[in-house]
Write a structure and sequence with these properties.
about 220 residues; about 20% strand; 7 helices; eight-stranded mixed beta sheet; alpha/beta; Rossmann fold; about 35% helix
């Protein structure tokens, strides 16, 4: 008898679109990244680890965080990466904050903006300064469940799968051209915490190659929309 096997959720070639093929993401030019983070900074560290392992040809020039107690700052210190606090509560408008962000990124010679758990709505002040170079990650399969509490939204909706999306940022929240997505099944006994932890594993997996994919598309002048 011939044993028939079916794809499982452990098979990353089934989970991820487009599939991650290392050769596709090799870059001749080293990317200078500026990271924005509001929380733990786990995606920031995953990117740093990918760089250290030689998988992503990039340097993290600076990480900007907006909450004084954000664990991302501690991760940056441990990694020897400059960290700058720009507390959003000290700025009169979103545009004023983004102006300070742009100035800081330029001071550190960052060419790409990586929103790794950045919990602030960005404005044209930032997007215009880094056109087609602002990348965001979101814990759902966009366009489903944009905005806050995406994991809870998926559980409340009763869907069977969710996941994460890396995309180019635009003025509309959690929108813009999609770079890469990973699917995560929702289990019968999932809570927001257990589901989010499994989604984070996939976020760490797809974020570095999605950054490389965005750079290759821009370098090759491929359409991004």
């Amino acid at each position: 008898m011939v044993e028939i096997t079916t794809p499982t959720f452990q098979n990353t070639s089934v989970l991820i679109s487009p599939p991650i093929i290392p050769e596709q993401f090799q870059l001749e030019e080293t990317l200078n990244l500026g990271v924005l983070a509001s929380g733990s900074g786990s995606n920031f560290e995953a990117i740093a680890q990918s760089i250290a392992a030689g998988k992503l040809n990039a340097r993290i020039q600076v990480i900007i965080y907006n909450k004084p107690k954000a664990k991302a700052a501690e991760r940056a210190k441990n990694l020897g990466i400059p960290a700058v606090l720009l507390d959003h509560r000290h700025y009169k408008s979103r545009e004023a904050l983004d102006f300070a962000i742009v100035k800081t990124l330029q001071e550190y010679q960052a060419d790409w903006v990586i929103m790794a758990g950045w919990m602030r709505i960005v404005t044209s002040t930032l997007l215009d300064a880094f056109r087609d170079r602002v990348i965001n990650i979101h814990p759902s399969l966009l366009p489903s469940f944009p905005g806050i509490k995406a994991v809870e939204q998926a559980l409340d909706a009763g869907v069977k799968v969710t996941g994460c999306t890396v995309h180019l940022a635009c003025l509309e929240v959690d929108s813009g051209p999609i770079l890469m997505q990973a699917v995560v099944p929702i289990l019968a006994d999932d809570t927001a915490e257990t589901l989010h932890s499994r989604i984070q594993i996939q976020e760490h997996h797809i974020f570095p190659p999605a950054i490389a994919l965005a750079a290759k598309r821009l370098q090759n002048t491929d359409p991004l929309v």
